[in-house]
Design a protein that fits this description.
325 residues; globular; 74% helix; mainly alpha
């Protein structure tokens, strides 16, 4: 099967599933449905697309086994280089810093303190345990923002290495996202400190915290590879993304409850992947609730869609990078 066949299957499955999702999908499965018909059609199409992406990804694994195994074997062959690059990034990050690695814990704590003071005292945000609410959203979104921003410039920044030796080009964005993953583990320590300081009740659902972090990691990896590929040919994407990521942050309900949004914006924000990952993390840590099957399907669908797009861009365009570096 070719890429065109997979695309046709995904498109056809999206169209077919949109009809039953529009007519019959119950609220307990899909969440609160929009009241107006155009928004409901868009919502049904979005749900159908996530299921279609998940199905096509499984189909690729089943029909392109040798191809997938080949890339996994290549990544395994360069595992030592990947480890060295991650270690280098981590050491360089805190070189000549007095507090060193402690900044991974202090930075989210200080940022949370500033935001809490502004919104609690000046704007009077009426959210239970507002500091923890902010920190939970900040932890997930900062992981995504940092990893994609670093991955975006990774291929361009290693142009000299690429010109001298053969290295799979996707190893560079992968190393940056893995480095950010290591950093977010320290940020989670800051989250636990605030959790204990505010006397929040621990729930067994916190054991499932690796799930939303894994979903965010896969989504950031795919999106980072896509950005790094575009950056080689179109350098202005760096400036555009720096503005776009700020807008993205404000549309992810990090510092405010999503319930205060107007109905139209309330439904549109559900098309934001980061909103789902942040909500998933908050359900596990703050609400003691395990998100349902559909929440997991949406999170996986977004992650796999980004991963497929990123891998496709890297694999099909990597031979041209040398001409633009």
């Amino acid at each position: 099967m070719t890429k065109k066949h997979y695309g046709t299957i995904a498109l056809g499955l999206t169209v077919i599933l949109s009809i039953p999702f529009f007519l019959y999908l119950p609220i307990e499965v899909a969440g609160q449905r929009p009241g107006n018909v155009p928004m409901l059609m868009l919502y049904a199409g979005f749900l159908a697309f996530t299921v279609a992406i998940l199905f096509v990804f499984i189909l690729i694994l089943a029909t392109k086994t040798d191809y997938v195994k080949g890339h996994i074997a290549t990544l395994y062959r360069f595992r030592h280089l990947l480890f060295m690059m991650v270690k280098r990034d981590f050491v360089t990050r805190y070189r000549r810093s007095v507090l060193g690695i402690l900044w991974s814990v202090l930075n989210p704590l200080l940022t949370m303190l500033v935001i809490s003071m502004v919104f609690s005292l000046l704007f009077r945000a009426d959210i239970p345990n507002f500091p923890l609410y902010v920190l939970s959203g900040q932890l997930i979104f900062n992981f995504f923002s940092e990893s994609t921003s670093l991955a975006m410039t990774s291929v361009l920044g290693n142009g000299a290495v690429i010109k001298k030796a053969y290295i799979p080009k996707y190893i560079f964005p992968v190393s940056q996202v893995v480095s950010s993953l290591v950093n977010v583990l320290f940020s989670f320590i800051a989250f636990l400190i605030v959790f204990i300081a505010t006397r929040e009740t621990f729930s067994w659902t916190m054991l499932l915290v690796p799930l939303p972090i894994l979903y965010t990691f896969v989504f950031a990896l795919g999106f980072g590879m896509l950005l790094s590929s575009i950056m080689v040919f179109f350098r202005d994407i760096g400036y555009i993304y720096s503005v776009g990521i700020t807008l993205w942050m404000f549309l992810s309900a990090i510092m405010y409850p999503v319930e205060i949004l107007p109905p139209r914006i309330f439904h549109l924000i559900h098309f934001n992947p980061m909103f789902h990952y942040i909500s998933y993390f908050r359900d596990l840590t703050l609400n003691g609730v395990v998100p349902g099957l559909w929440a997991n399907i949406i999170c996986i669908g977004f992650a796999l869609a980004a991963l497929c797009a990123g891998m496709y861009a890297m694999i099909t365009q990597q031979d041209k990078y040398i001409l633009y570096l």
